[in-house]
Amino acid sequence: LYADVLYLIGNVYNWADDIMNCSLYLRKSKDAARKYGFEAVLMKAYSSLAILYTKTEDYGLSLEYFQKTNELTDKLKDNYIKASSLKSLGNLYNILGQLDDALKILNEALILATEYKQYTTILLCHQFITNNYEKRGDFENALKHHKLEVEIESKLFKEELKIKTRGLHVKFDLEEAKHDNEIYRLKNIDLAEANEKINHQKVKIQDIN
Description:
Layout: H1 2-15, H2 19-36, H3 39-55, H4 59-76, H5 79-96, H6 99-115, H7 119-136, H8 139-208
Helix pairs in contact: 1-2, 1-3, 2-3, 3-4, 3-5, 4-5, 5-6, 5-7, 6-7, 7-8
C-alpha cells in the first residue's frame, strides 16, 4: 500500500531525528490512508504523529492525535498498537505534570503490553512509571519499577545477543558450505584434468604401438 510505504519512510526519518521529513511523510501517509479508507495504516500514522508532536513539544497536537489513535485502536480492536500508544500518552501526561492520569494510563498500557509480550513497551512503561513516582517523591515505588526496568532491559539484551549469535552461526554455516562446495568443485576440476591427461597418454601409447 502506498500509504503504508509513506508511513514506513516517515518512521525511518523519525529514527534519524529528521523531524521535517518525518512530519512530511507521516502526514502524507495519514492523508492517503484516510482518502482510501485504510484505517489500520491511519491508526499507525496517527500514533507516530502523536509521538512526533510530543518530541517537538506541540503538546496540543500530540493529545489530539493520541485521541484519534485510541479511537481507532478501540474500533479495530488492536490492543498491540493501543498498548504502545497508551505508553506514549502516559509519558506525555508525565511531562504535562498530570501525574494521576499518567499513572493510570501507564498501568493500563503495562497490562496490555504484558499480555501481548511487548517487551520494549513493558520496559518503557516501567521507565515512565519510575519517572512518575520520582516526580511525586515516592522513591520506594520508583526504585521498585526501576529494578523491573533493568530486569526487562537485561532480558532484551540477552535475547538480542542470542539473535546475533544465531545469525553468526548461520553465516558461519553458509561460509563453511560455500567452502566445502568450492573444494568439491576444485576436486572435480582436478579429477577432470587428471582423466584428460590419462586419456591423452593412452592415445600417445596407442599411436606408438
